[in-house]
Amino acid sequence: MLALHDWALVYLILITGACLQGLIGFGLGLFSAPLLFLIAPQLVPVPMILNALVITLALLLANRRYVDKQLAPFSILGGSVGVFLATAVFTLLDLAQYQILFGLSIVCAVLLSVAGFTPRVSGVSSAIAGTLSGFMGTLTSAGGAPMGLLYQTAHQQQIKANLSLFFVYINALSILSLSMADVVNKQDLLLFVYSVPAVIVGYVLSLFFRRYLNLNVIRPLILFIAFCSGLVCIFA
């Protein structure tokens, strides 16, 4: 179990990540997961996936009327494929291999986020983005980049609604799939119970800070921190 000073740092990272997620629709995974992997790797991926399930459910309930009901089934189908592929890969990796794959996934997620191209939103593109997000999300708990890229030109509430719907399903399926592969244990559940209050606090803070922060400045900062953390995971 973590020391008290480690928990203080974990809480700071989780509160910040959850607040960012509440503000712009992503951040808990892409910001918090790589930092936590460096200081408390036992929190990744299972406890972080459970934490992500909590905040995506809250965001979905708050923005449910903006869900794209026509395209959601395609992304969910693709996400299901990605989850099962990631579970199969996860069971074959040792810790060193997982750390490298984790870092590569984070770096790829950042590069996708800053790619600069805008894919056309369709059933096929939703399925492809869903597969990539499901795969990356199960391995790292930070799978929002492909789906975020797909919805990058949408209204902020549409982004939150559609990404949250997708990840409520994917996070729940990831936990079920990892449990069936005997990856989830009691320590994971205990770490989730200890860490989830920070996620709740971060989400509540996002409701307060929403009117005061420049979201256009926050996004590049998240991506920079995530990119650096991913590189450290690869080369550490």
Count of strand segments? 0
What percentage of amino acids are in beta strands?
A: under 5%
Secondary structure category: mainly alpha
Oligomeric category = single chain
Order of helices and strands: HHHHHHHHHH
Shape: globular
Chain-wise SSE layout:
Layout: H1 4-24, H2 28-39, H3 46-63, H4 72-90, H5 95-113, H6 123-140, H7 144-150, H8 156-180, H9 186-209, H10 215-235
Helix pairs in contact: 1-2, 1-9, 2-10, 3-8, 3-9, 4-6, 4-8, 5-7, 5-10, 6-7, 6-8
Subcellular location: Cell membrane
Membrane topology: Multi-pass membrane protein
Transmembrane segments: 7-31, 43-62, 74-93, 99-117, 129-151, 163-184, 191-211, 217-235
Structure explained in plain terms:
The chain has 10 helices and no strands. It has one domain. With about 240 residues, it is an all-alpha fold. The protein is globular and about 45 Å long. The mean pLDDT is about 90.
